Amino acid sequence: MAAPPATAPAASRCLSGAKSCWAAERSSSSFAVSAPSTGLRQSRSRVLSVRAKVATGVQRASTVDDGAKRPWKLSDARLVLEDGSVWRAKSFGASGTQVGEVVFNTSLTGYQEILTDPSYAGQFVLMTNPHIGNTGVNPDDEESNQCFLGGLIIRNLSICTSNWRCKETLEEYLTKRNIMGIYDVDTRAITRRLREDGSLIGVLSTDQSQTDNELLEMAKKWKIVGVDLISGVTCDAPYEWLDKTDSEWEFKRDQSSETFHVVAYDFGIKHNILRRLTSYGCKITVVPANWPASEVLNLKPNGVLFSNGPGDPAAVPYAVKTVQDIIGKVPVFGICMGHQLIGQALGGKTFKMKFGHHGGNHPVCDLRSGRVDISAQNHNYAVDPESLPEGAEVTHVNLNDNSCAGLQYAKMKLVSLQYHPESSPGPHDSDTAFGEFIELMKSNRL
After folding, report:
1. Cis, bond preceding 317 (omega within 30 deg of 0)
2. b/e map 333-356, b = 16+ CB within 10 Å
């Protein structure tokens, strides 16, 4: 059926913008010191939605040193890594200079959930999926109330959006939130470097007055290990959470008729963790990361959740002490940072991984049943299973590297996972973990 006449101009503008940008992309290049990248091949793409919106950053004209104007944007940003490599790129979103740890994420979708995941505080996220921005941004996919990451690194910035839920473009979104982004950079080469050398500190800058060496010195001096990042992302005061997963997205139909009061420690908690617990029949009180354990226990909760969060678990001894004061008294569930804090609270050790796990396609095996789930993960630290006391059982392992991905300790009434069972973004394989927590609280109630 033909589209309504009113929609034709939007589609026409999008196609017109696409043609000019395709030509521009074929003429542009980005490189890392000695590795020039190839241009993009022309595509016979067509607009898939009449609600298309043209992105602006990829179309701005640039003036070069000879005074001539070019109809495409030229490289105006740099990523300088602590190993000395310099990567020329084009900027979108905010401008300025920012320092962070560069990590790569292998998720194919869900860039907005990644942008608003507090666990990325202090980091630049490089998306290995080369095409980002095509679905735009909408208010329903937020995982927190703001963006905490330092910057976004992508290969291709979509020239238009074509999703019915889109409210604004990715560039508009990042600009409003003062988050830097770069595109037209060889993300594949940077990813290979991170896999070989490990996570690297980098500096993103659009400031042409600073030399490469000055930016390199900034990268070498900046540290993320041993820094308390949780205090910068936690809530200021306790609050009640009531929202469930929207009915149109709910995939679990056999919901419990029982109600459980859960106190959730906010170490950087994601909204969909709270929604999933509420959908499973939980009444939730969220408390700040430094909230006293005694006050939590005075609430007589049926269970306590220790949430995900950013950074080094060894840098937050106050959180470890809180976990120690609670485990064994009520059922607990740890997710990601919460899992690592439980490991330390039990007397175990955590260590920094070479480049961490970030993505929505990590295979995890439940050693109790042999079941394999595809999981969403985001962490740079892991629990050393050899350091755990007798009674603490490793329940899950990451099949990519056999690292510890889950724990249980029957005597202490605890379960924990190194990954994100709410899977936002990611597959829903691990949602059953919330049901396991419910069963743990049920058995403790009897």
Report:
1. no
2. bbbbbbbbbbbbbbebebeeeebb
CA dihedral 183, 184, 185, 191 (to 10 degrees): 70
* pLDDT of 296 higher than 70: yes
Residue 60: DSSP 8-state: -
DSSP strand pairing (97-105 vs 123-127): parallel
Q: Which CATH superfamily is domain 230-444 in?
A: Class I glutamine amidotransferase (GATase) domain (3.40.50.880)
What pLDDT was estimated at residue 360?
Answer: 93
Structure tokens at 169: 């473009």
Instruction: Name residue 345's amino acid.
Output: A
Contacts within 8 Å (CB) and 24+ apart, 412-415: 412/327, 412/328, 412/332, 412/346, 413/327, 413/328, 413/330, 413/331, 413/332, 413/440, 413/444, 414/327, 414/331, 414/332, 414/333, 414/334, 414/342, 415/332, 415/333, 415/334, 415/440
Residue 343: CB partners within 8 Å, gap ≥ 6? 313, 349, 350, 383, 384, 387, 388, 404, 407, 416
Position 120 pLDDT exceeds 90: yes
Q: What is the DSSP letter of 346?
A: T
HEC-encoded secondary structure of 115-133 = HCCHHHCCEEEEECCCEEC
Is the pLDDT at 4 greater than 50? The verdict is no
Q: Is the pLDDT of residue 15 over 80?
A: no
CA distances from 295 to 100, 141, 413 (A): 36, 33, 20
End-to-end Cα spacing for the chain: 60
Return the active site residues.
Answer: 336, 420, 422
pTM of the model: 0.85
CATH-assigned architecture of domain 77-221: 3-Layer(bba) Sandwich (3.50)
The ranges assigned to domains in the chain are 77-221, 230-444
